[in-house]
Specification:
With about 750 residues, the protein is α+β, with helices and mostly antiparallel strands. It is built from 37 helices and 18 strands.
Length: about 750
């Protein structure tokens, strides 16, 4: 971080032509104070803004311009150092999502996510005071020094300065520095934690991290549940090193830390001989790297070329810190990059375009890797990627395999966290025991995630585990447990346990108020107030969130639900209509509007919104069910198809299955019932009632052997509760005795 000065301007290539961004044209011009940004709108309005600061420099330079109310905004144009060219800042940040989800879009350059004071301050200046005024949404931000200063890593220096001055006055050597010394005073975990906050995609839970403390006392961390990572864990977004580091086997073993390879300023210690960074642990491979890598000496291959391949996003290069071996097979299956094809590439590949490889494509690379290292090479990477892919795509029929991986030896903390978070969308109750077990995981990140994910399981054993977690050594675990304990009756627990929960609750609330200038802060406060039964405060928090971001629908959806539960259907409808203007194709908005339309007896509008929801999300079983009921009442064949679809999408929902059976009976199509129920049972995930009604039907027809077989299936089904299994076993025994 530095002031935009004349000397800085002289180091940049002058901008020859304006760059168009979002319909406006921008050009940077240098002057006697440094430089200005001139813009011309689509209607010809011209504006000039002073370039005040620059940050970055190794790969790119971003620039800050003063805006109203003390905001410092990232300029719409940035500078790529290596090619000495100007480019569209936000346009370069668009990520190349290759899954079936929504595609990324560029932010408008004035978006608050590109406001320095709001979103991107902590890692570029030292000892920043945001000084935000919520009354008028303004800032008077200050900082001690631009860039990262000594205190960022060595702690507060006031005592050090006093001691140094006293030693100088006395003419003696300063022996006690009164500072944290990295190697002498901090252990490995503390040293890595000092680097982590700036090299991660994370949630900040406190504003008081100081060197010597541990990462998960102040932060939570994003993992592969986020689309900024490929399913196999490769980094797709910015340089989110910390998540990859959590999956690094060298780091997990306790044999490697950040400052083994990097200086405190982030420079690479082994730039002249990169292979030295892998010593002393891998001396045999380092000594014979050509045999290990299968590349001749003239190729100049280093360990990091294969195990830390460099890719780029937004013109910023990043190295893969998982250290995993190259896996072209993962490229073929998931689209993620691999080290082989980053060397054997067309020139665009290094910047993220992997589609246009020449003959050295992923199949070509995969062939050689398997010849050299066996057909199982990369199998752990593929196994992880498939599990994450199943979770992302909601393939919950694979839940046994997912839970087996979660509890298996190959599941590191980053993988476990991703799975636990993705399981939030899984409707199958058999997930809960496996998730509860993770409250005892050895890693605090996993325990915290399990605590958060157990919010919707009200089983007594879950509450017991969360109460224990609220007294965990790590604050992130305590905070996540406190969030999940909201609204639960803890009167049966000891005074000591209740006090621990109260203390954790206070930490949880503090984590919700540290960023009053962010819409998400007030959104999360709305959720908090809603869950503790204070709807008026919840609505006020959601409204404040809407003031800060009027283009985000989540506060509107949540506010509509609070209104609906309070009996204010008109207020709920108004919120959803506003949300619909922002995202007219959103399935949840359309679905909830349909429910309110039905309440107001506006059945044609309800049908329209249900169809819109299913157009966006064909797997939305609730919408299929409601549309089916709406149409089947008039004996429309389409209604029966939607009811059948809802039942097959969620076979363990007896309401969906029984509703379809009801309409079949009402329209004298009962003869179709048996085949339908059998198809539900054959999924292996049917509700217990489906087994019992089918077996009873067989018994009435005298088909005893078939009835026994159905009861046996129910008895052995791992998804059914114990009472249902016991009943099935009793009925099976009764029928066998009668034969």
């Amino acid at each position: 971080m530095e002031a935009f000065s004349v000397s800085l301007a002289e180091s940049l290539e002058p901008m020859a032509d304006p760059i168009e961004v979002g319909g406006e044209k921008f050009i940077v011009e240098f002057d006697e104070q440094g430089g200005v940004l001139r813009s011309t709108s689509t209607c010809g309005v011209e504006e000039t803004r002073r370039l005040r600061f620059s940050f970055g420099g190794r790969n790119v330079r971003y620039f800050l311009i003063p805006m109203d109310k003390g905001k410092l905004q990232v300029a719409p144009v940035a500078y790529y150092v290596h090619q000495r060219k100007w480019y569209d800042t936000a346009g370069s940040m668009v990520r190349d999502f290759q899954d079936s989800g929504p595609q990324d879009e560029a932010l408008h350059w004035t978006d608050r996510q590109l406001t320095f004071n709001t979103a991107c301050h902590d890692c570029h200046v030292s000892q920043l005071e945001k000084n935000y005024n919520p009354e008028d949404d303004s800032y008077t931000t200050t900082w001690t020094e631009p860039g990262i200063n000594c205190e960022t890593c060595h702690g507060p220096a006031e005592a050090h300065v006093r001691a140094a001055e006293a030693a100088e006055a006395e003419g003696v050597e300063l022996t006690d520095l009164k500072l944290l010394r990295f190697h002498e005073d901090l252990d490995l975990a503390q040293r890595d934690a000092t680097c982590g906050p700036c090299h991660a995609k994370s949630s900040i839970l406190t504003r008081d991290f100081t060197p010597g403390e541990l990462y998960f006392d102040h932060y939570d961390l994003t993992s592969y549940e986020d689309r900024d990572f490929w399913p196999d864990g490769r980094d797709l977004g910015e340089n989110y090193t910390q998540t990859g580091w959590m999956a690094n086997q060298c780091a997990i073993s306790g044999q490697l830390e950040c400052i083994h390879c990097h200086t405190s300023s982030g420079r690479f210690r082994f730039e002249d001989n990169p292979n030295q960074s892998c010593l002393p642990c891998h001396d045999k491979r380092v000594e014979n790297i050509h045999a290990h890598s299968r590349h001749p000496s003239e190729a100049g291959v280093n360990c990091i070329d294969c195990h830390m391949p460099t890719t780029a996003q937004a013109f910023m290069s990043r190295s893969d810190h998982t250290f995993r071996p190259p896996s072209p097979a993962a490229t073929l299956e998931f689209g993620s990059p691999n080290a082989c094809n980053l060397c054997h590439h067309n020139k665009e590949a290094i910047m993220g375009n992997y589609a246009g490889h020449k003959k050295e494509d992923a199949q070509w690379a995969d062939k050689y890797v398997k010849e050299w290292f066996g057909n199982d090479s990369g199998a752990p990477v593929l196994e992880l990627g498939r599990v994450i892919q199943w979770c992302r795509q909601g393939e919950w029929e694979k839940l046994p395999e997912i839970l087996s991986y979660l509890e298996g030896p190959n599941c590191d903390s980053a993988s476990a966290v991703a799975i636990l978070r993705l399981l939030n969308d899984c409707p199958n109750p058999e997930k809960w025991p496996a998730m509860r077990k993770q409250l005892e995981n050895k890693h605090e990140w996993v325990r915290a995630t399990a605590a958060a994910s157990l919010q919707y399981d009200d089983a007594p054993e879950t509450t017991k585990g969360l109460v224990k977690a609220s007294a965990d050594r790590f604050r992130t675990v305590r905070i996540r447990a406190a969030g999940s304990l909201l609204g639960r009756d803890l009167s049966v627990y000891s005074q000591e346990e209740q006090q621990a929960s109260k203390n954790a609750h206070a930490e949880y609330w503090n984590s919700l108020v540290i960023f009053p200038d962010r819409w998400s802060t007030h959104y999360n406060q709305g959720i908090y107030f809603d869950r503790i039964g204070e709807p008026e405060k919840a609505i006020a928090a959601y409204e404040k969130s809407m003031e800060l971001r009027d283009d985000i629908i989540q506060p509107l959806i949540n506010a509509s639900m609070v209104h609906a539960r309070s009996g204010n259907s008109a207020g709920a409808y108004d919120m959803l209509q506003k949300a619909l203007l922002i995202e007219p194709e959103n399935s949840l908005v359309n679905f909830n509007l349909a429910l309110l339309d039905a309440e107001f007896n506006k059945l044609k509008d309800a049908e329209t919104h249900l169809r819109a929801a299913l157009e966006t999300d064909p797997e939305m079983a609730q919408a299929a069910y409601n549309l089916g009921v709406l149409l089947a009442r008039d004996n429309k064949e389409e209604g029966f198809r939607w009811l059948e679809r809802a039942a097959k999408l969620v076979p363990n929902n007896w309401n969906y299955t029984s509703s379809y059976l009801y309409f079949l009976q009402q329209t004298e199509r009962g003869s179709e019932s048996e085949a339908f129920v059998l198809s539900i049972v054959d999924t292996g995930q049917a509700a217990p009632e489906a087994y019992f009604i089918l077996a009873a039907s067989y018994e009435r027809q005298g088909r005893i052997s078939e009835a026994i077989e159905i009861y046996k299936k129910a008895k052995l089904n791992k998804y059914l509760e114990g009472d249902a299994k016991r009943y099935a076993a009793q009925m099976e025994q009764r029928l066998r005795s009668s034969q």
